[in-house]
Predict the structure.
Amino acid sequence: MEWDWAFVMQILPTLFEGVKITILATLLGSIVAAALGLVIAILRRSKYRLISMPTGFIAEFIRGTPLLVQLYFIFYVLPDMGITLAPLVAGVIGLGLHYGTYAAEVYRAGIENVARGQWEAAKACNLTAFQTWTRVILPQALPPMIPALANYFIAMFKETPLLSAITVLELMNQARSIANFNYRYIEPITLVGAFFLAISLISVIGLRWLERRYGRIG
Amino acid sequence: MGQWAGYLQLILDGALVTIKLTLMGSALALVMAFIAGLGRLSRFAVVRWLATAYIEFFRGTSIFVQLFWAYFVLPLFGFSLTPLQAGVLALGLNVGAYGAEVVRGAVKSIGKEQYEACVALNFNRWQTLRYIILPQAFVLMLPTFGNNAIELLKGSAVVSLISLADMTFQAQVVRAQTGNTLFPFLTILILYFIIASVISFAVRWLERYMTRGLDGVRS
């Protein structure tokens, strides 16, 4: 079997359609994960153990089980309970939920990195809990987290092929349908790999820049 | 409830495959992590480049793509793999690349004075690595290796997509046969979580075991 450039040219437009969905899923998933992660991180720090302990357990549970199975769960089980989601929506929720628990750990490290004195000063200034978070803690905690968060979003990007298992027509699914239709596997699958590798290598450069710009936790 | 017993048996059969895959994949990953991690610290530039290329390649693409490549594209070059072989190969090489960075970081974090002491004692390079550096570095690697093993366990779910009858695959079979979705998927989620908990417990135990008597010695 040999590499066929004409075939590559022929399938590129279809693959490009998949790339668009892949990027869309990554962006939406990142937004969900960033928001959810912050909620989890703050709930886990709650002084009420009735809130912090279940949140902690759920987060650990999500982190300890495969994304693929979670996607199946959202896509197949929820409709039986009356919640029917479009494949892409289910995929974005799955990605966001899974990586949200990872983002929560990043937030936790960032929040713990803020010196104790800041909390005490906020208390001394009679700030409410909400003001303490939004005016004092988060503005200091967030910038050093950016590189670590970006790292997880790149990881999420590489996991998007899993969405093909719940019929989202992203890059991997397009490649597989091309491969199955033409019965040529070399070009589509290799192109998918090359695409992800290229984006990852580029994003490593971006990550280095973010680390220089915002520093890192640790 | 009686009908579920048979289906549960099916899922447990899959759990065995998942555990086998995790153990074999972890073994390969451990070997690759040490080869590539130490390779990146080699004196020879060629070895360093090879190790870096391996690490970047396998970290740059996801396990899913690598698995498909190993299963569908490699046969076209004349290497036919069974689903289990392709799964172990892809999982081991993928997680090994992540582990290599852990090995490199741990070895580099060992103080210069340890190397100087080895020179003073006239150890050769192999002895330095084997008796002084690695025993200290390995303890540092353990917690991250535990996390990597859990990542490998989670990654193993994708082998169900190349028709290897692991836990996820069996859950899909049960779903197809019974039409019930909650039972199979909730069961395997719990089983995955139990296996992951066992891994993290075992690694913590191993860490305690390996650091026994070292309290106060390690900074």
Observations:
- Chain B has a mean pLDDT of 91.
- The first helix of chain B runs from residue 2 to 39.
- DSSP finds eight helices and no strands in chain B.
- Chain B has one domain: 2-210.
